[in-house]
Amino acid sequence: MSSTIVIEDKNQNKPITEPKFALLPQTTGKMEAQTFNRILYVRLPCNPIFPIGVVYLSDHVHKQFPNIEQRIFDLGTVPPLDYAKALDRCIDEFQPTLLVFSWRDIQIYAPVGGRGGNPLQYTFEYFYSRNPFLKLQGAMGLLRIASGYYGELWRNLGLLKRGIKRAQRYHPNARVIVGGGAVSVFYEQVGKSLPKGTIVSVGEGETLLTKLLSGQEFRDERCYVVGEEKPRDRLIHEQPTPLEKTACNYDYIETIWPEFKYYLQDGDFYIGVQTKRGCPHNCCYCVYTVVEGKQVRITPADEVVAEMRQLYERGVRNFWFTDAQFIPARKFIDDAVELLQKIVDSGMTDIHWAAYIRADNLTPELCELMVKTGMNYFEIGITSGSQELVRKMRMGYNLRTVLQNCRDLKAAGFNDLVSVNYSFNVIDERPETIRQTIAYHRELERIFGADKVEPAIFFIGLQPHTHLEEYAFKENILKPGYDPMNITPWTVQKMLWNPEPLGSFFGEVCLQAWQQNPNDFGREVMKILEERLGCAELEEALSAPIEAKPKQLVGV
């Protein structure tokens, strides 16, 4: 199958040489005509990850409105003590008429360092440790993390308010848009603390900005204006407006982003490239399918290769395909084959790339191309090695097919690292399903080598707008109107999704793993679970019998 993309307007990629007057409501209810001719994109502080969102957004605006001046300001490259001064200096120099803030993340519940320590470890120490000193350590750790969390919220909101106030010194009618991953998930909660008139963007921002800058009505996009309207019910579940994606123009990006080369200094750094948007699946805990929409939109292979070539010529050799899933379904296999073959034909033979892979959507031909084009790392998010639980979580994986495709990858010459995401104590988890997951993991180790398969242990984490949240309401675990941004211990315990009767058991196992081998936590957890519970036969893991309910006559 050739690369395809759904386009709503055949002329939408034609440049608009002059920004039109945007009609913006004032507090009085009157309409004011305003031109936005200077846009400043501010990426709020986060981990040093290539800010592909603001890069693509500014590239899109430039293609539509080439006469609009733009600048990217990345606070991720600024020392924390200099955030405010650096923002002031940038605004004073550029004097924007429109500020676009990108807010990447808010909550991190994972067995990784950050915000003063390991959130998962401290949580488990506090809730499950029988050692009073370890429990106190967990409590102090959680206090540091909570302080960091609320401190970051206060800081980011402060930077946003500071930025718009500063910009309005030069242009009293300057406006602000805020979007990004964090805002897309928590748009209802974040909006309550934002200045009146802020435009809150959910998901993609390209069509919203196009409409705003051309003077069209923009409120039909996934957004709302703080203080003037409430977000529509189920706003995040609305489908994004179809968009034709073309290769990012890095010659232009380099002129508007002084810190661009910061991400090119380290040869091991992976630069993001997006080959598609959207995820068609219904995994019960995942927000990708609502943030990006269920419709998969493919970027033409020639455009992806052209974008990679620009980065390649700047010395980039490591690429991360930032798609929700690189191959979301079998019908997209031909698109992946076309893209990888064109990478081969381009002559970029010394690159490496990584991605999230649905490993049940591979073919021997595709496996060979993956290896040939330099894939040296991939992640599989199967969540469980029990086919029964995979089915109950609506993930759509066929674990038997995953194993066969992994064998094909190995046969094609893949000999690098595989990260497999497991989330224990999911819905209907039992000792027998744990044993099945162990059996499945051991089989993956036999295929790739025990040192090449890294189990990443997570607890699925309850996120707003997901099927899991609906299940929590139904089971009275959560009550409507709860605050998902609240990280008090009693809320965190629910949102980490480690319920009894197995919650305490997993708490003990994880605490033991951190004590015995904190540098290899995932493998240690698997080892302890196998010692305590044993290992099932592989065939048990791959089978998911559906219980037949006895039929009843009507009225009985």
What does the main sheet amount to? 6 strands, mixed
Q: Would you identify the regions where 5 or more consecutive residues have pLDDT less than 50? A: 1-33, 549-556
CATH architecture of the largest domain: 3-Layer(aba) Sandwich
Q: How many beta-strand elements? A: 16
Offer a concise description of the structure.
By secondary structure, this protein is of the alpha/beta class.
Account of the 3D structure:
- It is a single chain.
- The protein has 556 residues and is α/β, with parallel strands linked by helices.
- The protein folds into two domains: 22-237, Rossmann fold, CATH 3.40.50; 266-461, Aldolase class I (TIM Barrel, Alpha-Beta Barrel), CATH 3.20.20.70.
- The protein is 40% helix and 13% strand.
- It is built from 20 helices and 16 strands.
- It has helices spanning 52-64, 83-94, 119-128, 132-170, 181-185, 187-191, 206-213, 250-256, 288-291, 301-312, 333-345, 364-372, 387-392, 399-411, 431-448, 467-474, 489-495, 503-516, 521-533, 538-542; strands at 22-25, 31-34, 38-43, 69-74, 98-102, 175-179, 199-201, 223-225, 271-273, 276-277, 297-298, 318-321, 352-356, 375-383, 417-423, 453-458.
- The strands form four sheets. It has a six-stranded mixed beta sheet with strand order 4-3-5-6-7-8, sandwiched between helices. The chain has a six-stranded parallel beta sheet with strand order 9-12-13-14-15-16.
- Strand 15, helix 15 and strand 16 form a beta-alpha-beta unit.
- Residues 1-33 and 549-556 have low confidence and may be disordered.
